[in-house]
Amino acid sequence: MKIEGTLTDEAILGELGARLAQRRLELQLSQGALAAQAGVSKRTVERVEAGATTQMSSMIRVMRVLGLLERLEALVPEAGPRPMELLKLKGKARKRARTKQKPAEEKPWTWGDES
């Protein structure tokens, strides 16, 4: 199954769990062995593979043992400044985000004595 935006969160977690389970089997690891090497409980590994929610630190530990940690770089690549931002910021790092303000709704001007 391809992971795409139309899937529910539960479906995505289930697919990720199945892929992690397949990788574990490719490496000839039992759930208990993976749990011991990752420093998590066997129940945590079972939950991850079943597609249940888990703490991010547990997922990182499991991925490290499975040799998948480097793939997180592709998941969330390091953001670099765009060339125009470099010119505007003059080499300084950006520290705040600004939301675009909606233009104020213009009402026709009146004297105020109309009834």
Mean pLDDT: 85
List how many beta strands DSSP finds.
0
Biggest sheet: strands, sense, closure? Answer: none
Element order: H for helix, E for strand:
HHHHHH
Radius of gyration: 25 Å
Computed structural class: mainly alpha
Distance separating the two termini: 65 Å
CATH architecture of the domain at 9-71: Orthogonal Bundle
What proportion of the residues form beta strands (DSSP E)?
under 5%
CATH topology of the domain at 9-71: 434 Repressor (Amino-terminal Domain)
Total count of helical runs of at least 4 residues: 6
Helix content: 40-55%
**Oligomeric category:** single chain
Corresponding CATH superfamily of the domain at 9-71: lambda repressor-like DNA-binding domains
- The rough form would be described as elongated
What is the CATH class designation of the domain at 9-71? Mainly Alpha
Q: Can you give a write-up of this model?
A:
- InterPro entries: Cro/C1-type_HTH, Lambda_DNA-bd_dom_sf.
- With about 120 residues, this protein is mainly α.
- The protein has a domain at about 10-70: Orthogonal Bundle (434 Repressor (Amino-terminal Domain)).
- It contains six helices and no strands.
- Helix 1 (about 10-25) crosses helix 3, helix 2 (about 30-40) packs across helix 3 (about 40-50) and helix 2 (about 30-40) packs across helix 4 (about 55-65).
- The radius of gyration is 25 Å and the shape is elongated.
- The N and C termini lie far apart (about 65 Å).
- The mean pLDDT is about 85.
